[in-house]
């Protein structure tokens, strides 16, 4: 396993990133021609008490976000485009010039400070009209609509973007959006629906990847993937059947999407055995079309997945664990040793945490250390790490009850100023040193108690 603490640095050209999601931070929910998203609708129904109408107000504060990125010294910034800000009702006929200008200005600003964009096309905020008219991702028509939207984004922003993520955490979209109803659009009561949604998400991703491959890759030279999320699962006992159950747990969450993309264009055997007629099937042509449509493995790791939201059936009686090193090793072994970009990682503090966020910093240090060990001891090809998140913002089903930002945002202040937290100071130092060199001993042990 190697030493508990490894004094070493990351490979040259390792990508240090930080990320945000549009609905969490942008605000300006109905300004300048933006259409409603499913989150705008979802947060106005049921028992929810707050919304992301303002978030961290990034729409009005590009300079503040750029300053925060400069303070961190990151090489890359992962952010998402809001589909209804670009096409207000989801189709290209509803093109919204002002929304597009916002993203052009952001990308221009990033270029000036020499930070490269990592752009997510879909981070959960579907145009509400597509949900109302077609039933959202449950409808096969979404494959063509997503392809049309992706085409516009590749054409408009692609000359400055080298990393694209089509869809963030399709597991959450399918299972919790259309199964448990915990996140937007909040649909539940049809146990087969999440699997139909997952099927359409994979097809939509593949359509966008092929489009990029055919039309844009030769001139733009970028890479495209889908962000898949998981925690590690360990056996509750050491018996062999428990290990097999762990494989099944991982297959139902990570493998659901990773197996078709990285292995053979089909669902994992464990899913097919357990779900028999409930799981849609790929034709041979579809399998060939889906398989291999990821240029790197985009891995998310953190509280947004939250196995605790899942009934125990998906854990198959086994235990959830936060070990990122084991998860990275698993991806290497199971999915043919792909280059792995950790596109979301971190933990959170409580909603009343201000700038001293020792817990968040502890987890950040732990996850980065586990990444370094995976590279040095397990020969995992990790090419980048993304701390989550740049700013405090609206945290989905937890609303403002937790904070995940490296920068503190006072939601009650008129200008929503960004203030660096302890975790921001730690992360910027770590980036500067490119890891944990021996001479940085004092800082490494700051959190020892």
TrEMBL record:
<comment type="similarity">
    <text>Belongs to the glycosyl hydrolase 1 family.</text>
</comment>
<dbReference type="InterPro" id="IPR001360">
    <property type="entry name" value="Glyco_hydro_1"/>
</dbReference>
<dbReference type="GO" id="GO:0005104">
    <property type="term" value="F:fibroblast growth factor receptor binding"/>
</dbReference>
<dbReference type="GO" id="GO:0005975">
    <property type="term" value="P:carbohydrate metabolic process"/>
</dbReference>
<dbReference type="GO" id="GO:0017134">
    <property type="term" value="F:fibroblast growth factor binding"/>
</dbReference>
<dbReference type="GO" id="GO:0008543">
    <property type="term" value="P:fibroblast growth factor receptor signaling pathway"/>
</dbReference>
<dbReference type="GO" id="GO:0004553">
    <property type="term" value="F:hydrolase activity, hydrolyzing O-glycosyl compounds"/>
</dbReference>
<protein>
    <submittedName>
        <fullName>Klotho-like</fullName>
    </submittedName>
</protein>
<dbReference type="Pfam" id="PF00232">
    <property type="entry name" value="Glyco_hydro_1"/>
</dbReference>
<dbReference type="InterPro" id="IPR017853">
    <property type="entry name" value="GH"/>
</dbReference>
């Amino acid at each position: 396993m190697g030493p508990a603490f490894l004094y070493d640095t990351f490979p040259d050209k390792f990508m240090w990133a930080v990320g945000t999601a549009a609905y969490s931070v942008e605000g300006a929910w109905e300004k300048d021609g933006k259409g409603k998203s499913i989150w705008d609708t979802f947060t106005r129904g049921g028992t929810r008490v707050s919304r992301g109408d303002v978030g961290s107000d990034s729409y009005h504060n590009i300079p503040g976000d750029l300053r925060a990125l400069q303070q961190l010294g990151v090489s890359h910034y992962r952010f998402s485009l809001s589909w209804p800000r670009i096409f207000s009702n989801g189709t290209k006929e509803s093109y919204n010039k002002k929304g597009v200008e916002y993203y052009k200005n952001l990308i221009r600003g990033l270029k000036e400070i020499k930070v490269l964009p990592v752009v997510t096309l879909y981070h959960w905020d579907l145009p509400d009209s597509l949900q109302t008219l077609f039933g959202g991702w449950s409808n096969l028509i979404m494959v063509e609509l997503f392809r049309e939207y992706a085409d516009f984004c590749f054409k408009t922003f692609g000359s400055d973007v080298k990393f694209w993520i089509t869809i963030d955490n399709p597991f959450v979209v399918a299972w919790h959006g259309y199964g448990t109803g915990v996140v937007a659009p909040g649909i539940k009561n049809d146990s087969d629906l999440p699997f139909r949604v997952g099927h359409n998400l994979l097809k939509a991703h593949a359509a966008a990847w092929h489009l990029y491959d055919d039309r844009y890759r030769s001139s733009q030279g970028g890479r495209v993937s889908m962000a898949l999320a998981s925690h590690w699962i360990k056996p509750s006992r050491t018996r062999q059947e428990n290990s097999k159950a762990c494989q099944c747990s991982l297959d139902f969450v990570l493998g659901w999407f990773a197996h078709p993309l990285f292995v053979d264009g089909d669902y994992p055997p464990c899913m097919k055995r357990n779900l028999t007629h409930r799981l849609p099937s790929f034709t041979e042509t579809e399998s060939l079309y889906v398989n291999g449509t990821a240029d790197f493995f985009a891995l998310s790791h953190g509280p947004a997945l939250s196995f605790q939201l899942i009934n125990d059936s998906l854990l198959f009686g086994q235990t959830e664990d936060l070990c990122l090193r084991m998860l990275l090793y698993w991806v290497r072994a199971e999915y043919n040793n792909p280059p792995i970009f950790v596109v979301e990682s971190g933990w959170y503090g409580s909603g009343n945490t201000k700038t001293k966020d020792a817990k968040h910093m502890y987890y950040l240090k732990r996850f980065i250390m586990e990444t370094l060990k995976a590279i040095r001891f397990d020969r995992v090809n990790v090419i980048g790490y993304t701390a989550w998140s740049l700013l405090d913002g609206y945290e989905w089903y937890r609303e403002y009850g937790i904070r995940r930002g490296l920068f503190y945002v006072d939601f009650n202040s008129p200008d929503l100023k960004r203030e660096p937290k302890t975790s921001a100071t730690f992360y910027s130092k770590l980036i500067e040193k490119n890891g944990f060199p021996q001479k940085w001993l004092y800082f490494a042990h700051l959190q020892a108690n």
